[in-house]
Write a structure and sequence with these properties.
The protein is α+β, with helices and mostly antiparallel strands. The protein contains six helices and 15 strands.
């Protein structure tokens, strides 16, 4: 194990937390953190992202990231295929030497044949050049991100790319895109980058809900707060129904006075009348019906 991986693993084990816990906290894939600890740099994305992961992981573990970044290996962008070397060309001198030897041999055989052969044609040599090796397949993809509104911060696998619009080339595969802007809901979703592909994304952020402006104090009212699951029916003294159902636990409902409240679980319904907390309407599981009138001034 290299020194980078040894220091990271020792610091993580000393922290008492697992790789999964650190990956969830930092927003970095567990496989990437494991590759850093095991010095499997070839399994990491491009160097700019991988060094960003190393810096964030080291700082989170309480380590100085600069010595570790200085030891991070420099990887080539691709490894060329083996090149086919064409056979060496024969020089013209060698060809003529062979032809001269053939002529001399034939000249020595002429007395035995009793005839003179025609002049021999020079031997033709066909040489083929090896084709150029095909280029390696692309391992990255082009990505451009626009946002609405403009200027939102864009992150890829926990690495900050900058403010939109952003463009660049990144290692292909399953990645996680996150977009943040003040006053808007954070967008986070997986994105698949195909090798050699071009991906153009436009993210529209949803504004955060506006806080409601406090309303001026009005006439006294009854506030019902539901701490347990309870059926409730609220009517006017004349019998007009204002509400009937089972509200969500933890919710509140407000009614103008006077009203009549009937509930099937009095302990789960707390009443506040004109700002005064009256507590639960009754005991656990009791059916209670009460009338609430405006307090006398």
């Amino acid at each position: 194990m290299c020194e980078i991986g040894g220091m990271l693993r020792a610091a993580r084990e000393e922290s008492g937390r697992s790789l999964r816990e650190w990956a969830r906290e930092l927003g970095i894939k567990r496989d990437h953190l494991e590759a850093l600890e095991e010095c499997r740099f070839e399994d990491l994305p491009e160097a700019v992202l991988a060094k960003g992961y190393l810096r964030r992981y080291a700082e989170a573990l309480g380590l100085d990231p600069e010595p570790l970044l200085a030891q991070y290996p420099v990887r080539p962008t691709f490894t060329p295929n083996d090149v086919i070397t064409p056979p060496p060309r024969r020089g013209p001198g060698a060809v003529w030497f062979v032809l001269a030897a053939i002529v001399l041999v034939l000249a020595g055989l002429l007395p035995w044949w009793g005839l003179r052969p025609p002049a021999a044609a020079p031997e033709a040599t066909i040489e083929l050049e090896a084709p150029e090796p095909p280029p390696p397949p692309p391992q990255d993809a082009a990505l451009s991100v626009e946002t609405e509104p403009e200027g939102a911060t864009v992150w890829l696998d926990g690495f900050r790319l900058g403010e939109a619009p952003v463009t660049g080339r990144f290692t292909a595969g399953e990645r996680t895109l996150k977009v943040e802007a003040e006053g808007y809901v954070t967008y986070e979703a997986p994105v698949t980058l195909e090798p050699g592909g071009e991906h153009h994304l436009k993210v529209r952020l949803t504004p955060l809900p506006q806080e409601e402006t406090p309303q001026p104090a009005g006439p006294p009212e009854l506030v019902l707060r539901f701490t347990e699951r309870a059926w409730v029916r609220v009517t006017t003294p004349g019998g007009d129904k204002l509400y009937e159902g089972i509200p969500k636990v933890g919710s509140e409902m407000r009614f103008p006075l006077p009203v009549v409240v009937r509930t099937g679980n009095a302990a789960g319904v707390h009443a506040t009348l004109a700002g005064e907390d009256l507590g639960p309407l009754g005991g656990e599981g009791l059916v209670v019906e009460r009338r609430f009138d405006a307090p006398a001034r």
